[in-house]
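The instructor's notes for this session suggest beginning with a concrete chain rather than abstract definitions. Hand out the sequence below and ask the class to guess, before any prediction is shown, which regions might be ordered.
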Amino acid sequence: MAEVVVSKAVRAVATITLSRPEVHNAFNEAVIGELTEAFQDAGRREDVRVVVLRAEGKSFCAGAEVGWMQRTIEYTFEQNVADARRLADMLRSIRECPKPVIARVHGAVFGGGVGLLGACDLAVAVESAVFSLSEVKLGIIPAVISPYVMEKIGPGAMRRYALTAERFDAAEARRIGLINEVVPTVEALDACVADLTKALLGNGPLAMAACKRVLREVLAAKSWDDIQALTTERTAKQRVSDEGQEGLRAFLEKRRPRWAGPA
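After discussion, reveal the predicted structure:
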């Protein structure tokens, strides 16, 4: 039985749903594999322009499943490396998905669940959501998720919450940059996700993919000379692309670009 539900794209929006409410949508090997496949597929599909990641039940994601953790106790070092690599590949498939990814967040978000938010482009949470980088309480560390989370919240907040494993609320998650918006109710949560989706659908799909890629490359660049060469080349490449030409002409001609559809 699939534990990640992928909806058909509706008006160019694909919804990927964690569907293990009985265990608060905790990860195991199957979930990691299905999420990786789902995001890779969404990235390839021409009918998808935005991806929404959501969850069923009381929690968004409570981190690692107890049964999975029990199995890893018996793993060798090499098996643990392979296991951690699968989690890293899953997070990378989200971060590098060429389509913008919005996380719809509620309930508990612990451990690897926080890593999911770090990998997504945008995240909206209901104000009752609770977050924790809880790994050190179990004598392990949030190493695999750290680059994704630290990219969002910065090294200072990462050091505090990764070391203390304390819980924090949605207001604090927004303050440190893990969450973009906090809303009071589930109804408001859905409305906020819809508003963000609408904004994204108004943008050039190839431009958004190129934007995601150049932001990753800028972070990985080693010098300002590299950054300057990279960003000037990417700017020129997008301007002369079919989409760039259409967008600029539509703006100057005071009309909607083709990808935005009729008014």
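Then share the key points. The mean pLDDT is 93. The first helix runs from residue 29 to 44.
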